[in-house]
Specification:
By secondary structure, this protein is an alpha+beta fold. The protein is built from 16 helices and 16 strands.
Length: 475
């Protein structure tokens, strides 16, 4: 094992026969290879960094076990991958690459705002931004990165207000077994490492699930994956889009292995070394017997003034897992583990964008039925009044007093549900999110997350929380 990250398996010195605490660069890896003379190298278990070494290692005479470097390049090269998606009839968000500022502006006009922009090769979503107009893009190109021939800027259509799904699978090149489909609680566009995910999906229609499974199988075989793969999908207006495919393990593999009781890495390594899926005893898609939630842990309380609104750049510092008989129970336990205490009484502040107003009615009714007092800004409160739901009108920040920031700072509000849409809304409501963070008040920024939270609060009120040991989870 070559790993120099002190936060991971490098602290468990007895996990491997030998542990080399060295950087993952060609120079160090080749030195280890000269000493060990390995039969081959597994590059699927360390994120993007080892994938980038695959071609050079193969050229240096070290066989790559599992998915071959050309297949890795096919999934990473946007041109080759886009061509394959067109051949397979798989829908992708519009995307282009720009090698100059003028090309970037022209591409953005063709694609249409909002757009997601990023440098060519990034880790953890670094320097990725959502731009809502040309002035946003201009600021990005002058401050975050510079487009050039050897370092193009990638521009993608941003699917605002969409659902996102994470799929992990194992392929032997001929068959594909799906380990799990996870539904993100947050909207598409939030980095997968920052997302709260539920397994099995809590609101996935059967026909959409069928399409996700079919496309994943197509991809595994067409890309020539041998071992693990992760696929990220988005669903918008009933249409399925593929965001990206990674021919490697994702951070959700340990989560799914615990949830299903199947040692996925062990099975995948068997496939990487030449066995078929049937030979490693994995022939059917895995089905969980309980509900599981993965929740990120953030360091926001240690950095006063940092906005809690999530985006494409990863900001979490850890993850926790919750298990329950319902999605709400699993979500509640995960939030508790992530140091987020959902209230059982008090006031809830509601401020949702026009697109979310009708969908917010069910959440407001359920909160009212739980005995919460609802307060909100003018548009949201009037919409609630029109549908017979009592709510108190309070001012937005800088509109007068008492405003929402005042009530948050004196802890009169116990929960914030605020769904900004568009650039101006994101910026205007930053003060609300900062005030909530300062007082440790849960702040939810999507309706899907709000729905999961309300279900969790209902479960908490009922007092029906079971205790489930992973060892007792049926497989």
């Amino acid at each position: 094992m070559v790993n120099c990250n002190p936060e991971t398996v490098s602290t468990d010195y007895d996990t491997s026969d030998r542990l080399y605490f060295e950087p993952l660069t060609m120079e160090y890896v080749l030195e280890v290879a000269r000493k060990e003379n390995p039969k081959g190298a597994i590059v699927q278990l360390g994120g993007q960094t080892p994938l980038k070494l695959a071609a050079a290692l193969e050229k240096a005479g070290i066989p790559i076990l599992g998915t071959k470097p050309d297949a890795i390049d096919l999934s990473e090269d946007r041109g080759r991958f886009g061509e394959l998606m067109r051949e397979l009839g798989v829908r992708q968000p519009k995307h282009e690459a720009a090698t100059s500022a003028d090309m970037a502006f022209d591409a953005a006009d063709r694609i249409g705002f909002p757009i997601l922009v990023r440098p060519s090769y990034v880790l953890g979503g670094q320097a990725m931004r959502i731009c809502y107009d040309r002035s946003d893009l201009e600021k990005y190109l002058t401050s975050a990165t510079e487009a050039s021939e050897d370092k193009p800027v990638l521009i993608d259509q941003f699917l605002e207000d969409a659902f996102e799904y994470d799929v992990d699978a194992i392929s032997d090149g001929e068959q594909v077994v799906i380990a799990g489909i996870m539904q993100h609680v947050e909207e598409a566009g939030v980095h997968s490492g920052d997302s709260t995910a539920l397994f099995p999906p809590y609101a996935l229609k059967p026909e959409m699930e069928k399409e996700i499974r079919e496309v994943t199988r197509k991809l595994g075989v067409s890309l020539g994956v041998q071992g693990l793969m992760n696929v990220q999908f988005a669903e918008k207006s009933g249409l399925l889009y593929i965001i990206e495919v990674n021919p490697r393990a994702s951070r959700t593999i340990p989560f799914l292995a615990k949830a299903t009781g199947v040692p996925l890495v062990q099975k995948a390594v068997g496939v990487m070394t030449g066995k078929s899926l049937s030979e490693v005893g994995l022939t059917e898609d895995l089905v969980p017997h309980l509900h599981f939630a993965k929740a990120p842990v953030f360091p926001f309380t240690k950095f006063p003034g940092v906005d809690v609104l999530l985006g494409p750049e990863m900001r979490s510092t850890g993850e926790v897992m919750g298990i329950g008989e319902t999605p709400g129970e699993a979500f509640l336990k995960a939030t508790m583990g992530a140091y987020l205490q959902l209230p059982t009484s008090g006031k809830v502040f509601l401020s949702v964008n026009d697109h979310d107003k009708d969908a917010a009615l069910d959440i407001a009714k359920r909160l009212h039925a739980l005995g919460f007092e609802l307060v909100g800004t003018r548009g949201t409160v009037l919409h609630l009044f029109d549908h017979g739901i009592p709510a108190q009108l309070i001012f937005k920040v800088n509109q007068g007093s008492p405003n929402v920031e005042n009530l948050l700072l004196d802890e009169s509000i116990q929960l914030v549900i605020n769904t900004p849409l568009g650039r101006q809304s994101h910026y205007d409501e930053k003060a609300i999110r900062l005030a909530a963070t300062k007082r440790g008040i849960p702040c939810i920024t999507t309706l899907s997350a709000a729905g999961a939270a309300v279900q969790a609060m209902e479960r908490k009120r009922e007092g029906k929380l079971g205790i489930f040991a992973l060892q007792d989870t049926p497989t």
